[in-house]
Amino acid sequence: MASVDNGAQSETKDQATTSTTAATDPYNVEAAEILASSAQHMPIAQAAPIYEQILSLFPTASKFWKQYAEAHMAVNNDDAIKQIFSRCLLNCLHIPLWRCYIRFIRKVNEKKGADGQDEIRKAFDFMLGYVGADMASGPVWMEYITFLKSLPAQTAQEESIRMTAIRKTYQKAIITPTHHVEQLWREYENFENSVSRQLAKGLVSEYQPKYNSARAVYREQKKYVDEIDYNMLAVPPTGSFKEEQQWMAWKRFLTFEKGNPQRIDSVSSNKRIIFTYEQCLMYLYHYQDVWYDYATWHAKSGSIDSAIKVFQRALKALPDSDTLKYAYAELEESRGAIQPARKIYESLLGDGVNATALAHIQFIRFLRRNEGVEAARKYFLDARKSPDCSYHVYVAYALIAFCLDKDSKIAHNIFEAGLKRFMHEPVYILEYADFLSRLNDERNIRALFERALSSLPPEESVEVWKRYIQFEQTYGDLASMLKVEQRRKEALSRTGEDGASALESSLQDVVSRYSFMDLWPCSSKDLDHLARQEWLAKNINKKAEKSAVSNGPATLDKIPAGLASNSNVSGKVIYPDTSQTRLEFHLAQQRLGSRLLLTHCRILLDWHPMYLMRC
């Protein structure tokens, strides 16, 4: 007895540990498997809450639905079983689950005579309508044919109806690429020959090419299906190698099906594509791109209503996906359903208090497109009162006023109003400067830069200085250009360790001044050389100091006076400090532009392995 009690206590402890793990990591697959396994050994009253918990996180896990249904079947709880199947069947197109459903239907109806047989037949038709295209559906087709053959026929008419139903089922099965397609073909030949050899010859000849096509497609399709893990549970993407492999496997399979390899009619082909998407979503349930692809495929196929239903299901699965909401709103707007689209935008805004800047901006654009200038203006005036309204909203509405409404005065007023609130935002300053550049308003651009640079701290003013210099290169004369460059050096020299050296003029300044777009006043070899020199100039002094400190004063005392100044050259090799790499890239970009930045990157990448080898 003691050992039994200890075992029960251990099992209870394991369940508690698993429940804790599931609480901290709800999509822990291993924990879900353990919980489901433990539920199989519990009374249904205790197991049901566990299954509900698991299925709330994994609603497309057909194996858990099957276990849940079988637990109720074991105690003949028919009402609960029907409820379970109504919740899961259409979202879990997996053969084992559907065969469980057929077993239940047959069990319930086997003793109800002709009415029961009719219900079973309808259930088979219902099942094959949804999962008959599955490669693993061969046994289902065979089971249905066996059931049809077992039906009693009292009259010649009933026999004729029965034989016609068997023939039609065989003919559907043999043109479906399944693992059992060859066996089904042999059985079909035997069936037709048993009925009438004369009639069989014509029917077999008619269906032979269709069967051959199905068999050939099956062999090709199997290559794609073999790459898919049908035991995988749907979890949010983590970027793991296995997940990415499965994503690619499903994408390849979908592409294969969309190519209609069997060259069947468009209705049948579309039905197979829908089936493949539905199966894919059982495993990639949390992938936004799969939902989007499925919805847009429906839309491109002309079935807008189906596309809308897919988007609605997608947002139920991924309620926090703003991307899918925008895509859904776009579909509604594109078909002229403005009010449904507006409701989607309003759902993105929520109560308006915690709405994102992007939600405000996109709603303003939507209003401008569909309700006009005044509606957009009214909403902007309300949105800007929100404490969470960022500079992006001001920039977006100003550009709407300028580009769409052709009203530069209102746009200018909006930028000025925003400047009182966002003077500390360099990006806002640059957007305002771009707007003024479009107006060719030289005086106000210069005034804007001066106002901004007088209030921005030096470390946040780098991009503004860069744009100011570009402005002077375009609008100013040589004196004003040189003056701004010198002012920038003085301002930025206080932010780094370079000190006085940063104030000196260099050839890089000339290169920056006299370049234009992708045109440079020197060769690529010269750019390489300049980048190397710039890097050395910024790092050699720091490395020399570190080297001296590490060697210590006693070491310096032993070096002859005539060689002391060159000790770092004849001693240790100076290695690049990789912790400063990002800063160096940024500085290189400021000084020499994108072309020199790429050169600079290449030099650093080339040098590091060399130094590592010397170490």
UniProtKB/TrEMBL annotation:
Gene3D superfamilies in the cross-refs: 1.25.40.1040
One GO process term, biological-process aspect: mRNA 3'-end processing
Domain of life: Eukaryota
The UniProt record lists the keyword Plastid: no
Key words of the record: Nucleus, Repeat, TPR repeat
Intervals holding TPR repeats: 288-321
Name of a matching Pfam family: Suf
Primary location recorded for the protein, binned into one broad class: nucleus
GO CC term, one of those recorded: nucleus
Residue ranges of the region described as Disordered: 1-22
Compositional bias annotation for Polar residues: 1-10
Protein localization: Nucleus
Residue intervals of the Suppressor of forked domain: 18-527
Protein name (database record): Suppressor of forked domain-containing protein
Annotated source species: Populus trichocarpa (Western balsam poplar)
Lineage of the organism: Eukaryota, Viridiplantae, Streptophyta, Embryophyta, Tracheophyta
